[in-house]
Design a protein that fits this description.
By secondary structure, the chain is an alpha/beta fold. The protein has one domain: Alpha/Beta hydrolase fold, catalytic domain (Rossmann fold). It has nine helices and eight strands. The protein has an eight-stranded mixed beta sheet with strand order 1-2-4-3-5-6-7-8, with helices on both faces. Helix 8 links the parallel strand 7 (about 255-260) and strand 8 (about 280-285). Helix 4 crosses helix 5. It is globular and about 50 Å long.
């Protein structure tokens, strides 16, 4: 289906979305910023449910497991269906610029996958920068994926695997797919749900130019995240910037992004390269959506969630 370029026009942005963006800007002005705030304070703010989007409550029945090969302190968080064998396993990788965030903050979104599709979810609590810069986080995600590929049948009764993540989690998901192919010969993921990820850490044009405060993430924050995650690294390395990788034999993917997101180009470029490498790919751009818009209780947020669920439903159905 041809891509509808009208999503980039100002007239495609609803008043509800404009009001949400304005409210988000006002809220962020009252919050600590990345350029002058201690990282510990930011982590505490998130742990306490602060920020633009309050953290949903954790799920009591979630299991913590220390996967062999993961770094000290890194674990996975598992939620299983209560009344049936899983239809598959979804490997979830949380966002947070590689420096903030926890797997439990995705509990409610993962519980929805469990209850809607009968999937089990495995969310990676990888080591965070700057205490553990690259390659610690990618190494933990790779170890979790290897364990899952080798043990899904025994532990979950299924070999069907999907992967997904948002923001830095989408980056780590893409890196994990490439490592699984190149280091372990594994190309059996049934689908990849990649939500507004950064795929070129040397910075795409939209990262450099931004759209102002409407984007929900500014260049100062992006650069600080990179400084903590990949200090002194070669950003052309495909293990750091997966946009530069050979993308053959990747699973069907859905790329989701808002038109105001400074990471817009990353999804546009990665979707095109995914297709050019012979893979299935779908791009969904939401007019006026800033970074993180899918968590908002507005029409484009609900639409993005429905689209992602439809993609996952189709991947589960086609691989049964």
């Amino acid at each position: 289906m041809p891509f509808d370029a009208s999503v980039f026009g100002d007239d495609a942005i609803t008043q509800e979305t404009r009001d949400f963006v304005a409210a988000s800007i006002a809220m962020r002005e009252q919050m600590p910023s990345m350029d002058n705030t201690d990282l510990g304070q930011l982590r505490q703010l998130m742990d306490e449910g602060g920020g633009a989007f309050p953290v949903p409550p954790s799920v009591d029945r979630a299991e913590e497991y220390a996967v062999p090969g993961m770094g000290k302190g890194a674990t996975v968080r598992i939620i299983r269906p209560e009344d049936r064998e899983p239809t598959g396993v979804y490997l979830d990788i949380h966002g947070g610029g590689w420096v903030i965030g926890r797997a439990r903050m995705s509990d409610q979104a993962n519980l929805a996958l469990v209850e809607t599709f009968g999937l089990a979810t495995v969310s990676v609590d990888y080591r965070l920068a700057p205490e553990h810069p690259y390659p610690a986080g990618p190494d933990d995600c790779e170890a979790a994926a290897v364990w899952l590929a080798e043990n899904a049948s025994a532990n979950f009764g299924t070999e069907k695997l999907l992967i997904g993540g948002g923001s830095a989690g989408a980056h780590l998901a893409a890196v994990t797919l490439l490592r699984m192919r190149d280091r372990h010969g594994y190309t059996n993921f049934a689908g990849a749900n990649l939500v507004y990820g950064p795929y070129d850490l040397s910075m795409t044009p939209s990262q450099r130019l931004g759209v102002g405060p409407e984007g929900g993430l500014d260049r100062v924050a992006i650069e600080r995240f990179y400084e903590m995650f990949i200090p002194g690294q070669d950003t052309a390395d495909p293990d750091i910037s997966p946009l530069n990788a050979n993308l053959q034999n990747m699973p069907p993917a859905l790329f989701t992004v808002g038109s105001y997101d400074p990471l817009l180009d990353d999804s546009l470029f990665m979707h095109t390269r995914w297709l050019a490498a012979g893979n299935e790919s779908e791009l969904a751009v939401y007019p006026g959506g800033p970074h993180g818009f899918d968590a908002a209780p507005i029409a484009i947020g609900r639409e993005a969630t429905r689209h992602i669920q439809a993609f996952i439903r189709e991947r589960v159905r086609l691989t049964q």
